Amino acid sequence: MIMSGPALTDALYYLRNFRQAIQWVVERNDDLLSPAERQFAADLNSLPIAAQALLARLSMRRGDLFRQSKIRYAEIDPLADAVQALAEMGWLDPRPVLALQEVFRLSTRAELGMRFGERIGRMNKQDAYDALVAEQGADRPFQDWLNTNEAVYHVSIAPLVLQFRLLHFGNFYQEWHEYTLAYLQVFKYEPVPLDLASRPFQSREDIEFFYALYRCYEVMGEGAKLPEALEILPNAPPAQDWLRRRWDRLRYHLGQIAEREEDPRAALLMYRDNTQPDARIRQVRVLERLERDEEALVTARALIEERSSELIVQRATRIVARIERRQGIKPMKRAAQAAWVSTRLRLSPDPERRVEMLVQEHLSRIDAPVHYVENSLICSLFGLLCWEAIFLPVRGAFFHPFQSGPADLGCPEFVARRRSTFNLCLQHLETGEHATIILRTFTEKYGTSAPFVHWFALDEPLLQLALTCIPAEHLKLYFARLLDDLSENATGFPDLVQFFPATLTYKLIEVKGPGDRPQDNQRRWLSYFASQQLPVEVCQVTWA
Known about the structure:
Strand 8, helix 28 and strand 9 form a beta-alpha-beta unit. The two termini are about 40 Å apart. Mean pLDDT is about 90; it is low at about 1-10. Helix 14 runs antiparallel to helix 15, helix 16 packs parallel to helix 18 and helix 20 packs across helix 26 (about 470-485). About 55% of the residues lie in helices and about 10% in strands. It is α/β, with parallel strands linked by helices and about 550 residues long. A five-stranded mixed sheet has the order 5-9-8-7-6, sandwiched between helices. It has a two-stranded antiparallel sheet with strand order 1-4. It has a two-stranded antiparallel ribbon with strand order 2-3. About 30% of the residues are buried. The chain contains 28 helices and nine strands. The protein has three domains: about 15-185, no CATH class; about 200-325, CATH 1.25.40; about 340-544, no CATH class.
């Protein structure tokens, strides 16, 4: 959630944040740090301020090689003194030896053309590199490559700083500027108590396992073949749930690659004992391809019996019916589903406006306004009422102060770990306190990054109207189904809602344009609405 906040007046704000982050890692992970990591943290504060600032600036940029002409910070002056201090510490190399590929990455095509000839300057970089790489000889400093006086600096301490970032965030996609964004209130985060048990890593083995996963992703990104990726895939992780989920996510990805490369046996190996929700369905489909129908049937029927989610049951049921047809078995008659209400509406097309907007305008009245809400309204009411449960400081859910939600949100055990707190939140629907709590949370937490809550789609009048017209009994039914499978059931809601304040009622409206039909997740919600006698209709639009 992007917000506006205070302006920066301290030119070295980023250095203050950088040192705060390093110290935070030291205080929480002293038992995990190597001697070199402890020494780095101790030596950082002994450097001149300008050198600390330069290291912080470069650590927040991409890569570890920087041209002198690209380093321009008014508060770091003179730059040469800061470079010298870092070089004397051994943290920066002011004259690194570079390969031709690194030179290409740092140079413009015009510079390459001036150095290697006009023909090279006319080529794209990849073709130019291919034309030169075989004849250029040994690696050498940037100045020698381009016959220039401009220096290139290599931040040799970068891998160690990256290690601190990993220990802080538990990932590589968040960076040090999270501190600045939070200070500026560009992003707001819910404060959650963090103790030593909340650390992402509990041992050096955990850290090494994460790097092994990361290396596997890198190898695949570099174009490696599947056997090479499988060769370096680490074995099952230490006893850290979130690392197991990461491992299974990688294995699922490798399984999909194996399927595309017509290697079903490798795919089957990746899907077995995989906790990713869709992995066992993929496993059944691979068994089908291997013509192991009996094994596929047993697995699919087990999934139906387990009823872990409606999506899995729906897909497994289709597979069972398909295999039984092949085997000449008459499929079991499916139980009749409750039918939802369908209406037809004939409108004039407008190529510049979506069909949902046209239906909204057509149906809306002063005494019965229609709002375009799709997944935002019911999910937001749920997130606002159950805020306490969602941000409960469960072990393995929160690692640092800059999380938009719990790390285990997609985990099948997410609700079970917080069941008692969710129950307490939902009890407010029984007492009638839910409206007060939702509105209070909306006011107090507005703009805070949170799952389920769509801040930009909400305002207080819409919430007031919804809480007036939607009975608590209906909210209880919606929230119960959400909790059955938060990953899948947070989508598929109807596009529009119409409120009737005079009668304190409402109606959900799913809009379908010509030739459009409800998707699977929408059909599951529509069936649920119909079975619970919740007010919903599907509006099928035809063009006049």
